[in-house]
Amino acid sequence: MAGERILIVDDEQSVVRSCTRILEREGFSVLGKTDSLSVPKLLRQETFDLILSDIRMPKIDGLELLKMAREIDPHITVVLITGYGTLEDAINAIRLGAQGFIMKPFEPEELITSIKA
Q: How many angstroms separate the CA atoms of 14 and 19, rounded?
């Protein structure tokens, strides 16, 4: 798992920074974005093993981003994070192909476990 490329997408810069620090310490190569609108183009230009994305964001939300990412790369792993999660969000995320769902706030161990699963 170490060395895999992870794209973090969250409109909160503090979440992107925190997740980046945690995952880089685990040996992952991480790129963070706070503007979800830039992500589809990025996914067409670069390859990532996993996307860690917030669900609720302006412009393109995490569920829409999940759909776009799976169309661009059907094999990409997607884990969604949210501070406002509902059972309905989790069910929709899984139906759309998300491999994981994390509730904010989360502990570093929870993030690492969900990425390595």
A: 9
Burial 45-70 (b: 16+ CB within 10 A, else e): eeebbbbbbbbebeebbbbbbbebbb
**Contacts for 68 with CB less than 8 Å, ≥ 6 apart:** 39, 40, 43, 60
Q: Over range 28-32, report the average pLDDT.
A: 97
35-44, 65-74, 89-98: segment of lowest average pLDDT:
89-98
List helix spans (H) across 4-117.
Answer: 13-25, 39-45, 62-72, 87-95, 108-116
The backbone region for 30, taken as left when phi is positive above 0, alpha when psi lies in -120 to 50, beta otherwise, is beta
The dihedral through the CA atoms of 61, 62, 66, 67 has a sign that is negative
User: What's the pTM value of the predicted model, to 2 decimals?
Assistant: 0.93
List Cα–Cα distances, 78 to 39, 93, in angstroms.
13, 9
